Amino acid sequence: MLQQLTRRQLHTINLSQREVFRLDPSFIAQYQNQRIRFGFNGVGELAYKRSYARVREDLGGRQEQWHETVERVINGIFTMSLRHHNTLGLKWDQGENDKIAREMYQRIYTFKFLPPGRGLWAMGTAITEDKHLYAALNNCAFVSTKPSIQTENVIEKFIQAFTFLMDSAMIGIGVGFDTKGSDLKLKVHKPLTSVQVTKIPDTREGWVDSLALLLHSYLKPSQAKVTFDYTQIRPAGIPLKTFGGQSSGPGPLIKMHELIVEMFERKLSGSELVRARDIVDIMNIIGKCVIAGNIRRVAEIALGEPYDKEFIRLKDYDRYPDRVDYGWVSNNSIYAELGMDYSDIQESILKNGEPGLCWLENMKAFGRMADPANYLDHKAAGGNPCLEQTLESMEMCCLVETFPNNHSTYQDYQETLKLAFTYAKLVTLGLPHWEDSVEVMARNRRIGCSMSGIAQFIADKGIHNLVDWCNKGYDFLNKYDAHLSKSLHIPESIKKTSIKPSGTVSLLAGATPGVHFPHSRHYIRRVRLGKNSNLVESMIKTGYKVEQDVMDSGTLVVEIPVSLGDKVRTLSEVTMWEQLQMASLMQKYWADNQVSCTVTFDPEKGEDKEIKNALNYFQYSLKGISFLPRTKTGAYPQMPYEEITKEEYQQRFSKLKDIELNPDHPVLRVKDAQIEDPTPENYCDGDTCKL
């Protein structure tokens, strides 16, 4: 039984076997020339080409097409299952698994459900097949900066939180962290005059180890001063074959080291104890390094105490101008306490849209809020950057996204739930390379089976049917998990469902993101591309507006006009209270983890003055929430969505040329895109997390 295996055995499961699962090529051939219905007037295919269509040597060095991406994903996930069966000596029914794999293929191909962006990008590639880096299949993680049990290695465990975040971010995982490490009262020490020169190898591990060495030199007494030799790090512009993109050279790493040293040296001349702000600063500096390192975008959430005024004001750059360079990297939220006074929180939200709120009491006590408290998650410590997953420290989690409005009957949707859940459950067979993560993930087997397009479903089928499908679907998943877990000889999942904010993945399917209502019937959808992306020239030729990303010098922003049609209600027609009620409804009847929801409030209608009252009511039916003011110009520059008029939409759309992204499927508007490996999205794929 898996539960009885040692940590090392858990870590090595699936690593030695080389058996592979492959769908019959004749089955794949049926899909080669089918019309693909990507969503939102071409946004979906652009997002796919940008983020998930890998360049593959087995395809002659060309970029894969959608039917080949789905094939790669299916082959990868069933190969993981096959190796697991062989490792534990379980019976493998080839015919039955072929049948399930084909049905899963068809439902992904037609956008009835989709793996997370992490799965679309990494599954079945060298990342999992050769490097066995199964952590890359997970969307999100959380780490506490305060050890949960008494240990002699307090400083080591504290430093581990930072190296865990950096390592995870470098493979595209969004990470939440807390500031509880400030309770340890750790002192910053002046390094000795002796110098330790360390040559940094050109690897992910090398970058992470350099961070650990630097932190040790200031947090442990009597340590040599650390200096680094960066000569082994490849120069900027070299392609990164496994993870995509191009190398940045050592510059971002050098800058990270310099900023951390400057921070510690300032503390030596003042307060020598590590405060909550110091923890957030280091985590944010790490995130900026990873972004500038040209690896991928980064997602962080900092969870602080509700009474920590300095933490709550960290995004007030008039007060803390030195944080402008990196403070934007994280969403900042508080551990809200039931019954607290929300007046100061409302004031801060009105100033800069933060903090968000996380009710850890509810996260620990409840699954779905409709069900009695069970405290199955009593070890929970926080959540991921978009707060759709309850997590223990060092825990990672895989999400999967279903689109109920792409189904005409509940029976059809239930079959999709079965296959979507199967995908996510099988991902838990591939355990990560952090030993502490192996322990908690092998025990919890937590996943997040999510829904998107909820606003569209309500418009088509009504709220009553939504609640009915949620209740039936959740009951079905509980029973199915018991069956599937028993057949795999692994524990049942501690929690199974969530509502993620979505973003890129829902674009592929043409679904509104998660529980959110669309901003308007006509809007600009902003998609970010790396400056070195070969898609940029094609987008400009097509007539899309392309401009510099104001937050990232290495990124460009493409503006795509979208029309949603007339049936779905928009934010202009939905109050703040109704959005909160919708989040509460899904927390009650679907999500046993959490509902990720950013509530848009309208100051012109006086909703800004009602936030604290709303929190008083909804604190008992939610686990997390964040707020953003509704403005026509945007609460911050280059928001993912911006409302435009029907006339402006028609004007913008009329200027677009009929050019194709994919010559084999002439449905869209961009051609002549050169071959490039995609830049994948990270964590929960959500631009809606207010980053």
Automatic annotation (TrEMBL):
Q: Which UniProt keywords apply?
A: Cobalamin, Cobalt, Disulfide bond, DNA replication, Oxidoreductase, Redox-active center
Q: What is this protein called?
A: ribonucleoside-triphosphate reductase (thioredoxin)
Give the family per the record: Belongs to the class II ribonucleoside-triphosphate reductase family.
Please name the GO terms of the biological process aspect recorded for this protein, alphabetically.
DNA replication
Signal peptide boundaries: none
According to its UniProt record, which reaction does this protein catalyse?
A: a 2'-deoxyribonucleoside 5'-triphosphate + [thioredoxin]-disulfide + H2O = a ribonucleoside 5'-triphosphate + [thioredoxin]-dithiol
Query: GO molecular function terms here?
Result: cobalamin binding; ribonucleoside-diphosphate reductase activity, thioredoxin disulfide as acceptor; ribonucleoside-triphosphate reductase (thioredoxin) activity
Q: Which residue numbers delimit the B12-dependent ribonucleotide reductase insertion domain?
A: 193-259
Enzyme Commission number? 1.17.4.2
* Enzyme class, UniProt record, top EC level: oxidoreductase
Give the domain of life. Eukaryota
Give every Ribonucleotide reductase alpha-helical domain span: 23-125
User: Per its UniProt record, what PANTHER family does this chain match?
Assistant: RIBONUCLEOSIDE-DIPHOSPHATE REDUCTASE (PTHR43371:SF1), VITAMIN B12-DEPENDENT RIBONUCLEOTIDE REDUCTASE (PTHR43371)
Q: Tell me which cofactor or cofactors this protein depends on.
A: adenosylcob(III)alamin
According to the entry, what is the taxonomic lineage of the organism? Eukaryota, Sar, Alveolata, Ciliophora, Intramacronucleata
